[in-house]
Write a structure and sequence with these properties.
The protein is of the alpha+beta class. The protein has two domains: 4-181, no CATH class; 188-226, no CATH class. It is built from eight helices and 13 strands. The chain has a five-stranded antiparallel beta sheet with strand order 5-6-7-8-9. Strands 11-10-13-12 form a four-stranded antiparallel beta sheet.
């Protein structure tokens, strides 16, 4: 596993230098005071302070870290959580969000990175069943994001496996999201058009398009890479 300094150097030389508009890809660190008060493993705390994570790296975004590491109830419906509703999520620190606004969190108990379903945050029984493993730790997450940005599609799965074997298992979060973002190794992706109108249910249509199509937000029309 690379050090924070090595990761920052590789990210800046391989990702930022190659991007035409790189502002959204710049690494954002977390204030030391916000990190030092947590129970995260020392390696994770050091990584967030010295290297950080990219502000946006589709399909994930880590803008939330600008405000420090916050508890779930400080990000979602702040001030509305009852004490008993916080039970079971008190050890999760929000790093960022996925494309569906689900929180990407670091677990203070073991340092693992997980995704929680934001629609079930107040449903304690169902919530635990919908928690998805992302990476074994923050350093592994950072290296996997680097691989997704720099490695050719056909080699991504093996790159993730070399960095963090559990993250490369079938239907693992990063594997599914990377396929959705870039399509398959054959260079084909499915794009789903979501249409919504007031008072009506969303509709969807699919067409074949080349991979590496970015997400576009055009008023009520959203175009996202989708693999199915």
């Amino acid at each position: 596993m690379c050090t924070p300094e090595q990761f920052r150097s590789r990210w800046e030389s391989k990702v930022l230098a190659a991007a035409a508009d790189a502002d959204h890809l710049r690494l954002r660190t977390v204030p030391e005071a916000s990190v030092s008060s947590t129970k995260l493993p020392p390696t994770s705390r050091r990584f967030l302070i010295e290297a950080g994570l990219p502000e946006q790296c589709a399909p994930l975004g880590f803008e939330e870290m600008r405000k420090g590491l916050r508890r779930i109830w400080e990000v979602y419906s702040p001030g509305q959580w009852k004490r008993e509703e916080k039970a079971g999520v008190e050890h999760y620190l929000v790093l960022g969000l996925d494309e569906n606004d689900n929180p990407i969190c670091a677990d203070e108990r073991d340092g693992k990175v997980v995704m929680l379903d934001h629609e079930l945050l107040f449903d304690q029984k169902r919530r635990e069943k919908r928690i998805r493993f992302v990476n074994s730790g923050i350093p592994q997450l950072a290296e996997c994001l680097l691989a997704l940005e720099t490695v050719e599609p056909e080699a991504r799965l093996e790159a993730i496996r070399q960095i963090d074997p559990p993250a490369a298992q079938e239907k693992a979060f990063l594997v599914v999201r990377s396929q959705s973002r870039f399509g398959t190794a054959k260079g084909e992706a499915m794009v789903r058009y979501f249409f919504s109108a007031r008072g009506s249910r969303p509709l969807s249509r699919k067409i074949d398009v080349p991979c590496r199509l970015p997400s576009l937000h055009l008023d009520s029309v959203i175009i996202r890479p989708h693999n199915s």
